[in-house]
Amino acid sequence: MKGPAIFLAQFAGTDAPFDTLENMAKWAADLGYVGIQVPTDPALFDLAIAADSQDYCDEIAGKVAEHGIQITELSTHLQGQLLAVHPAYEQMFAGFAAPEVRDTPSAWPEWATGQLVAAAKASARLGLKAHATFSGALLWHTMYPWPQRPAGLVEAGFEELAKRWRPVLDAFAENEVACCFEIHPGEDLHDGITFERFLEAVDQHQAASILYDPSHFLLQQLDYVQFIDFYHERIKALHVKDAEFRPNGKSGVYGGYQGWVERPGRFRSPGDGQIDFRQIFSKFAQYGYDGWAVLEWECCLKHPEEGAREGAPFIRDHMIRVTDKAFDDFAASGTDDAANRQILGLD
Q: Which listed site, 127, 156, 301, 346, has its alpha carbon 20 to 30 Å from 311?
């Protein structure tokens, strides 16, 4: 495992040190991070240029390297969302689109596809092995089965989602980069079963991977540790984000349309919530995860800069240096086949 790293999306802004990628790299390094996950916001990273220009990618990588920082992954969460948007959500997601297509929802999928293919190429130019994104959603408004879902609706939804994502997944495979879907409420890929449905629809595509974020699983009351046992072969990226779930007699997993502070399920800075990160990091060590551990800071109470300051040592303290020998090797007897047969009473 590599780290600690930090996702820049929640911190980027117009004031220094959050106004440029180089300034944010220095800020992250000063806090003890060695990696940054970079949102493909034109203010920080020009995706169109990066897809076609090795010089641009080398320049970007060189500038952050001056501060001892590596780019861990690029992120296209906003563009991935726009690959599949139900009309009920068009007005709310319009701000994710580029100005030239913002008022034309029918143009969003084509625009998003171009962005995602460019991200695959840019990731390869940067020498990255994984990419972070969202799946988008055509079915989310039917998440609770009332009224009853018509027969075949779910299958049709995943068939269409797969059709839209297949050329993107092909581009990631061609560039030898894992396309990591953050499994997230609001997306059609929001738990293990929906990820499996998608895998089936894309014929187990080699590029289809997972960005593991336990906070979203805790809020769904899903076993976030066992999830790693089921899907570790597809997990290629990791967000370290905490959460807590405090149900009461008035509200549960759906939250009662309340703000984040009042909801029973809410995001917290790492260490302030209920996630058992020691179990998670142990599972990742068990399965030989060799990607990055990236802080995604979201908290309904704590100031972001405080969360960022605490994040690097939190991740570092949980990362496990995997042993190269068994703890009881000192007692090894050096027996051979003949001795083993004797021990078993076979000779």
A: 127
End-to-end CA distance of the chain: 46
**pTM (2 decimals)?**
0.96
Beta-carbon count within 10 A of 146 CB: 6
Please check whether residue 213 is in contact with residue 183, taking contact to mean a CB–CB distance below 8 angstroms. yes
Phi and psi dihedrals of 148, rounded to 5? -55, 135
Measured distance CA(266)–CA(151) in Å, rounded: 34
Domains and CATH numbers, the chain: 2-343 (3.20.20.150)
Sign of CA pseudo-dihedral 323, 328, 334, 335: negative
Please give the radius of gyration of the chain, using alpha carbons only, rounded to the nearest integer: 22
pLDDT in tens, 34-85: 999 999 999 999 999 999 999 999 999 999 999 999 999 999 999 999 999 9
Contact call for residues 269 and 242 (beta carbons, < 8 A): yes
Contact 134, 77 (CB under 8 A): yes
Q: Which residues contact 255 (CB under 8 A, 6 or more apart)?
A: 263, 264, 265
| Whether 84 contacts 135, CB under 8 Å | yes
CA distances from 132 to 234, 254, 340 (A): 13, 26, 50
Q: What are phi and psi of 5, to 5 degrees?
A: -135, 170
